[in-house]
Amino acid sequence: MSEPNAGGGDTGATVDTPLKKLVGEKTAKALAAHLGLHTAGDLIYHFPRRYDERGEHTDIRSLDVGEQVTVLAQVQRTAVRPMRQRRGNLLEVTVGDGSGGVLTLTFFGNQAWRERELRPGRWGLFAGKVTEFRGKRQLNGPEYVLLGEGGEGEAAANEEVEEFAGALIPVYPAAAAVPTWVIARCVRVVLDTVTPPEDPLPVTVRANRNLVGLGPALREIHRPSSKEDLYRARRRLKWDEAFAVQLTLVQRKHRAADWPARPRPERPGGLLDAFDARLPYELTPGQRDVGREIAADLATPHPMHRLLQGEVGSGKTVVALRAMLQVVDAGGQAALLAPTEVLAAQHHRGMLDLLGPLARAGELDAAEHATRVELVTGSLGAAARRRALAEVAQGRAGIVLGTHALLYEGVDFADLGLVVVDEQHRFGVEQRDALRAKADQPPHVLVMTATPIPRTVAMTVYGDLEISTLSQLPRGRSPIASHVVPAAEKPAFLDRAWRRLREEVAAGHQAYVVCPRIGEGPASEEEPPREDDNGRRPPLAVTEVAPLLAEGPLHGLRIGVLHGRLPADEKDAVMRSFAAGQLDVLVATTVVEVGVDVPNATVMIVLDADRFGVSQLHQLRGRVGRGSAPGLCLLVSEAAEGSPARERLDAVASTTDGFKLAELDLEQRREGDVLGATQSGRRSHLRLLSLLRDTDLIRDARAEAITIVEEDPELVRHPALAASVAALVDEERAEYLEKG
């Protein structure tokens, strides 16, 4: 049912109508090429980035050099002067935003008509790339449209001027070839000709949550009559995004509850009890509580699907190992997937140490209820691989550790009962699915992450998983102090950082030096882009930094190099040497970010720290302070004081609360990425919803989704709603959410 008076005529045009039929072929081509907009619906859902008001400033002073911007400003003065290097004049127009911030607009050539048009007092929208000349911010040859009165040139197009006649002026995500006012003109044409889409939201939900209709919401978000109407429009469209995601997750959770799984209950007097008895330390209350939750899940006839999150060093691995032993006690096998061979090998060594004779089934000194722990990686030799695969296939190996090599053909399990995925964001969904397919029935799944997840993100991304959190650190973990080292402003501070590292080594400890890049050669997963948009130098590289340190500030120390491009056996040898204290310093990429556990390492120096994300820095520094001595993390950066990059580093240095940092990280990333847009390379559909600011709305959407799915699991009685959910969360993204 269409919304009455929601605009649109009986033209036969719908949201699926190609734009070229509505706005002309040339404009449609530009919208498609530069913004990925092809249909009327694409354009209607291309929402304004913000709204300007004449008389209110847009804070010109906060604009970053190199940024493509659209500003609402008033002409203050104009000046014409001859150019020095060539014939002709230069027109300089100074515009201001009412806050004291000013921009200089420069136009080359003899353009007397522009001087007449851009007279002092006129307001306009000016779009271009911010540059800086002699300390002044400027736009060279910007596109612009003047507001009110008409004028010459582009501003004379009355219909474009009319678009900005209201109090609230929409400013769209735009491109240099398609400025915001062209988008606004096209939106107006579409709104006036296209029949609004049917409102898919059940009337009861709209009434319960006091939501406006879809047609009016789409009109008001583009051409708001007032701030109140705009708020109501945004709230309705945010609701649609939250509701689609929550319906998808609740549906999948509902279906999963019907899947059969083999129960793996605890067995008194078995491997798990024997392990607990030989554990050299006491479990934290949090580990015991989470252990009970997981044990109860494993005992049910439906597959567990649980996320275990906890700070670096909170003891997740021991919790996971106890779950694996419960499954082995119940006659099954457990597999742990690690993101790198280094980490898989470390898990293997760590579990062999913890289990001792419990991991030596078939050997003379094996314990009574022993099993075998096998490592399966791509770098195993042929004979070792055949032996390991036979142990797995015949069920003698109760615990199997590896990377994605576990997914290859030829790795068969006798009875796979539990899959543990360590740092799940390192794996593609297809890889996790392939491992689950190796069981006769869906195995239980435990996902572990050391990246703290804000509550609303967990609700939105992991809404079909039960979530357990380990918040306590085990006894014996030491505090970590973090400081920013401003290398450009105070080079002496960097010298002091290297001296500090040497002091720690002299005291018998070890250190990490982390770089954002490996060095010359093919790119890898851990390698960021070589250059950024502002043309800064390439990030520092391990292979370039290590020899400079060996010859310079760290001369005489034993230095090892570790990165993802080394052969697996070489990586393992380096890590073994470092863990054994045969190396003083490890110069590495983020390959050490997850799981590398060397209690004697007390200092980490992160070079070009501004090139890393907040959560990544938090993970990295968790590699130090793992023993009895306090940890020190020094974040070296050339970012200027007061810049966003420097503020980010200051925030990391100011707190070790991973949840606070996770929220900061989320604020600084595109929140839409949570729907898998990054994975698929496609546009995200979370255009308005903020996972931080819209907590209550997301919670309400989940409650309504649960009610509807309980009554109508497949939305058979709500076909329009089902179609809307499919459009917002297509099958690819739905699978990403399910398997995430």
From TrEMBL:
Keywords: ATP-binding, DNA damage, DNA repair, DNA-binding, Helicase, Hydrolase, Nucleotide-binding. Residues 518-538 are annotated as: Disordered. GO terms for molecular function: ATP binding; DNA binding; DNA helicase activity; hydrolase activity. Residues 493-667 form the Helicase C-terminal domain. GO terms for biological process: DNA repair. Gene3D superfamilies: Nucleic acid-binding proteins (2.40.50.140), P-loop containing nucleotide triphosphate hydrolases (3.40.50.300). The keyword DNA damage applies. InterPro entries: DEAD/DEAH_box_helicase_dom, Helicase_ATP-bd, Helicase_C-like, NA-bd_OB-fold, P-loop_NTPase, RecG/Mfd, RecG_dom3_C, RecG_wedge. CDD domains: DEXHc_RecG, RecG_wedge_OBF. Residues 297-470 form the Helicase ATP-binding domain. NCBIfam families: PRK10917.2-1, PRK10917.2-2. This is Probable DNA 3'-5' helicase RecG. It comes from Micromonospora krabiensis.
